[in-house]
Amino acid sequence: MAPTSPAGAAPAxxxxxxxxxxxxxxxxxxxxxxxxxxxxxxADRNTSFMMWSRLGGTLPxxxxxxxxxxxxxxxxxxxxxxxxxxxxxARTTIFRGAEIFGLALLFRVQEFALGYPWAPxxxxxxxxxxxxxxxxxxxxxxLCRLAAAGSPxxxxxxxxxxxxAVAAFVAVLTPPLWTTLRPRFLPWPxxxxxxxxxxxxxxxxxxxxLFPWSAFAFAGLAVGFLLFSDFARKRESLVVACxxxxxxxxxxxxxxxxxxxxxxxxxxxxxxxxxxxxxVRCGILLIILFLVFAWxxxxxxxxxxxxxIQLGNTSLLVYWVHIEFVYGRFSxxxxxxxxxxxxxxxxxxxxxxxxxxxxxxxxxxxxxxVSPQPRPAAxxx
Length: 381
Prior knowledge:
Blueprint: H1 17-39, H2 48-56, H3 60-81, H4 86-115, H5 129-147, H6 155-178, H7 188-195, H8 210-227, H9 230-234, H10 236-258, H11 275-298, H12 307-313, H13 315-326, H14 340-369
Helix pairs in contact: 1-2, 1-3, 1-11, 1-12, 1-13, 1-14, 3-4, 3-5, 3-8, 4-5, 5-6, 5-8, 6-8, 10-11, 12-14, 13-14
């Protein structure tokens, strides 16, 4: 995520504003999840309110990674529109992924420094969502380079099919990599990138390893190439509606497969590693994509200033900054000691603060883009 989006500049124009709205929605869900998790006292954590908060907290990470794939497809498509060679497109996108991965490592260093001396040194090597975003973008760049080989005809379709194949491969391979086929021969910092084991004896579901999280990026990449195809550009509403319907079908199919007596894995964990749960989450993402598209197309999303779109334009910035004021040393409320009403007031303060920061960043960017007008040449020069 750049200050605008994971793959570069935010989608320009009204046609793709729903992508920014989705990213802003992920920011809002992230704020509420982190604020309540950090500040609410133990006595209030088993309430139905907190249950719904945690349920909403299952959406931000898949949304961010899924949208990174869509944005990646947009950037790749635009670079191809400029007739750049495939190797140059791959170099640009892979370098951007490496840049995000570098920022992820820098973020871990910052968190360790601000948490010193209480933070363990192993936190420097923890696999977080930014790490996986960067690595997923590098892998998507390599995939698009391979899919670009050969005839330029139907290159979007080849990319989409290849991305779906990789997403399925990652989802299917996740359960054994977490259980029976764990790469225990690797040092834990490397194994953690595959299954999130970190320093523990078992993989941890609160971390973000490549398996299964990169599958969301490749699923988003496939959806992105479909959305930016010539067919979809002419029938955008129909295509997005079909994606929403496909999401409903995916959820139903996944639940049907989960209830099947046929079991493919020796160890099966529906809520963390199952391909069926991945399919359910992808279905939910497609349904949300359709609902947000409809709201932005026919609702009031663009009639006035939209705080959600504004946050979506600067998602990395608000992610980076809000963490310190919620979980970090500069937390605006005492951690683990607040009732739900006080935590809600703190959430509102975080929202307003991040919105103000986002607006200031956007205005600063606009000013820096305005180049000074050249003076008229002197007469006779």
